[in-house]
Structure formats: C-alpha cells, structure tokens
Amino acid sequence: MIDSSIIYAIVTILLALTDAIRVKIAMGKVPNINHKVSWKLGIGAGASVLIWWEIFVLPGNWWSLLAAAIAALGFVGIRFALYDLCLNGFRILMGTNPTGRIDYVSPTTSSYLDEHSEKVPFWAKRIIGGMVWLLMFLAYKLIFKV
Predict the structure, then answer these.
(1) Cβ neighbours, 10 Å, residue 126
(2) Cβ neighbours of residue 115 under 8 Å, at least 6 residues apart?
(3) How far apart (Å, rounded) are the C-alpha atoms in residues 56 and 71?
(4) pLDDT tens digits, 41-76
C-alpha cells in the first residue's frame, strides 16, 4: 500500500500546483475557481492508481478488492492531509496567497468541503487526514500481514 500511497501523494501535490496556477490565471477575473475540477481529477487519479495497483501489484483475488478499498480510504486521508497545505505553499510562491500563511482558508471559497467544515481548525483537518491514512495503512498491514 505504501507504493500506491506515495504515487497518490505525488499526484495530490501536482493537483495542488495545477490549482495554484488556475488561481493565478483567474485572479481578479472570477471570485473563485471551480473546485469540482480538482475533485474530479483527484478521484480519477486515485482510481487510476488503484487500478494500476490492482493489476500489477496485488495478487488478483477477492481479497485484492478489500486491499483496494482500504487504499482508497487512505487516499482520502492523503488528500485531506496534503492538498490544502501544498496549494497554500504554491500560492505563497506565486504571490497569490493574500495572507502569506500556509494555513490560509479563503473566506469566499466555493469549495463544498471548506464551506461545510469551517468549524474544524485547519491543522485539525490535516491531522485527521494523516490519521485516516495511518489507520488504513495499519489495517492493511494487520489484515494482509505484509
């Protein structure tokens, strides 16, 4: 599971870079970029990594589906832990982060997740994401003894 997680983490970082570039291009033209694009790309990339892992790494039996489901939940944790951190870091580098803070959350975001989880502090979301990945990794290790 570690290899697929590393690949998805790299994909998440690249998607954050893509969105930082999209923000830079759209700045001053529209109030917010469409976050559905990023989520769809994240889901598609995660599915692609899981399919690769399923075909080339896992043994190809019914237990492989359980392994893929555990990894998919781990990918959700990776997204929560890394995406906003990387997006804010890239926005700082590009000069489009108005506060210059790594924990910046736009007050006018159109992100469904950000709009409905504003009561959870920024760093708590990152810790929860990391813990979700860690729990899935440990479950994978425990179940598959690898």
Answers:
(1) 17
(2) 109
(3) 15
(4) 999 999 999 988 888 877 777 788 899 999 999 999
Domain segments of the chain: what residues? 2-144
Q: Exposed, middle or buried, 88 (CB in 10 Å: 0-12/13-18/19+)?
A: buried
Amino acid identity, position 82:
L
Burial call 17-45: b when 16+ CB within 10 Å, e when fewer: bebbeebeeeeeeeeebebeebbeebeeb
Amino acid present at 94: M
- Which letter does DSSP use for residue 28 in this model? T
* Pair 132, 75: CB distance under 8 Å: no
Amino acid, res. 108: T
